[in-house]
Amino acid sequence: MTPTHADRQADSGDATSLTALAWRRTALRVAVGAVVATRLLTNEFGGWVVVAGLVGVAIVLVVHASASAAYLRYDRRPRRLSPDQGMARSSIRVAALAGFTVAVGLVGLAWVGLAAAAAT
Amino acid sequence: MSRGTSPPGVVTWPRRLASPAQDRSSVVPGTIRNREGAIVAEDHRNPQVALANERTFLAWIRTSLALTATGAAIVALAPPVHRGWLLASGAMFVVLGIVAGAQAWVGWRHTDRDTRAGRGVAPLRIGPYLTAGVIVATVTLLIGAVLA
Predict the structure, then answer these.
(1) For B25-79, how does the pLDDT look when each residue is reduced to its tens digit (9 = 90+)?
(2) Domains of chain A: which residue ranges?
(3) pLDDT, tens digit, for every residue of B14-33?
(4) B59 with A97: CB under 8 angstroms?
(5) Nearest C-alpha of chain B: how many angstroms from A2?
(6) Is the ipTM of this complex over 0.90?
(7) pLDDT band at B142 (very low <50, low <70, confident <90, very high)
(8) Taking CA atoms, which of A42, A119, B100, B140 is between 20 and 30 Å from B47?
(9) Residue B10 in contact with residue A12, Cβ under 8 Å?
(10) Chain A residues with CB inside 8 Å of B62's CB?
(11) Angle, to 10 degrees, between the axis of helix A90-119 and the axis of helix B47-77?
């Protein structure tokens, strides 16, 4: 069955909602990961891990708020995808989230390396 | 074709754009404007593709977190597995998580660039390597379990 114009508009709205929810879900998961990593690594790496964890959680919360604000703005004041949307610019959110995720991975790798060194 | 009407197959962005009450001076399809309203670039993106690209990026981030958490959990929980193989498996999972995190950003960037330029999306080259890595890490863990 061929979708109607109304169906396509609904799909567009659904895509916006799905993307906003995906941002929130992922941001919260990264925040939980950061807290768990902080708890796990504090004994090995000292107090600065707590600071790094707090900074990470703050970044993730900003990303969460930024994504929510961006999609709320799309919903309230329709406009085309713009290259300049301040902190809500998607490339900034993407870079922040990817950077922090890779950083968590690198710290995890360092922790595994320490465990390996302790085992030998 | 007048503005505000969409031919079949064209998705209007965002959903309320078709409303006749909207000012469409800054939403001419195919253009990106700066704050002053001047056209700064041609944008060939389908909004659905741009949103799907973001969701794909987020799925990669969640995959990265899952792989990193798996590697850390393997080492932290210390199951009855030969220590060397256990650490090797855990390290492999964490490295795969880092690779997935990097792929998230690189894939989003390439897809964003290609779709802006009106080109097709490049195939996923890293997928088979990541799958092979997960299999190797799992087999490594199993070998360690057998040797323990």
Answers:
(1) 344 445 555 666 666 556 666 777 888 899 999 999 999 999 999 999 999 888 8
(2) 5-119
(3) 443 334 444 443 444 455 55
(4) no
(5) 10
(6) no
(7) very high
(8) B100
(9) no
(10) 25-26, 29
(11) 20
